[in-house]
């Protein structure tokens, strides 16, 4: 979907409009809730390909990936939804306990929450990029997130940014939610993909970057002529 044809402003506006379209598709396909995993995988398929400087057909790519990954993504969704509820209940119970070891128990649960969020923030991109089974996707997401250092924290913070903003600015709840469902989820996925593609496939990412640089150089030369 191209709004303008040339120049940095045209590239920015084109990507802005594409992000809105992608975000709307993600939002609509996530409405049944249990399809959230499949729609997130479909969104990451598009943003990961953008990170490789490809230009996929957004609607076609989104729905093909949605259908292809539906079963595995639904299983991942229910696994992580159940695990998240379990950890939340554990944390709530630990905070209510009146015991000398409460602080230690809370620390252990928070550590488990960290690993949970680290894997959760990687599992959909891993599933769609490597096209592996549910168990292998979770295993690979764990090891990749643990090898990702400070960038794992960065990706987790990006994904939790809407929650942080709502806590910090509760009076702007409606505006934050509207912005997130209008374009924010797509922007976050794209920013995460820019790093994740280098983690998943550094050689391919490097080749794509070199090709893009060469194409930029050729375009500049054409404009000078």
Report on this model:
The chain has nine helices and no strands. By secondary structure, the chain is mainly alpha-helical. The mean pLDDT is 90.
Q: Detail the poorly predicted runs.
A: none
Strand count: 0
Overall pLDDT level: 90
Provide a count of the helices: 9
Task: Encode the helix/strand succession as letters.
Answer: HHHHHHHHH
Percentage of residues in DSSP E strands: under 5%
What structural class results from the helix and strand content?
Answer: mainly alpha
Q: Note the overall shape.
A: globular
| Radius of gyration of CA atoms, rounded to a whole number | 20 Å
The N- to C-terminal Cα distance equals 28 Å
The helix content is over 70%
Give me a quick take on this structure:
By secondary structure, the protein is an all-alpha fold. The protein contains 9 helices and no strands. 84% of the residues lie in helices and 0% in strands.
Topology:
Elements: H1 8-30, H2 36-51, H3 58-68, H4 70-96, H5 102-130, H6 134-146, H7 150-168, H8 173-200, H9 202-224
Describe the structure using short key phrases:
225 residues; mainly alpha; 9 helices
């Amino acid at each position: 979907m191209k709004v303008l044809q040339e120049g940095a402003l045209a590239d920015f506006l084109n990507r802005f409009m594409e992000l809105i379209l992608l975000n709307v598709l993600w939002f609509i396909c996530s409405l049944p809730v249990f399809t959230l995993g499949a729609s997130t995988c479909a969104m990451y398929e598009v943003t990961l390909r953008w990170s490789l400087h490809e230009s996929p057909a957004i609607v076609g790519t989104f729905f093909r990936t949605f259908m292809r990954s539906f079963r595995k993504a639904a299983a991942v969704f229910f696994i992580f939804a159940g695990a998240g509820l379990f950890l939340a209940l554990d944390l709530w119970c630990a905070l209510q306990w009146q015991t000398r070891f409460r602080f230690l128990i809370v620390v252990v649960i928070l550590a488990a929450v960290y690993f949970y969020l680290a894997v959760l923030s990687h599992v959909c991109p891993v599933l769609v990029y490597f096209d592996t089974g549910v168990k292998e996707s979770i295993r690979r997401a764990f090891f990749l997130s643990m090898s990702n250092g400070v960038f794992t924290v960065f990706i987790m913070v990006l994904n939790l940014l809407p929650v942080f903003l709502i806590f910090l600015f509760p009076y702007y709840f409606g505006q934050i939610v509207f912005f997130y469902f209008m374009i924010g989820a797509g922007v976050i996925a794209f920013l995460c993909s820019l790093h994740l593609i280098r983690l998943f496939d550094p050689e391919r990412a490097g080749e794509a970057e070199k090709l893009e640089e060469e194409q930029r150089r050729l375009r500049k030369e054409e404009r000078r002529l």
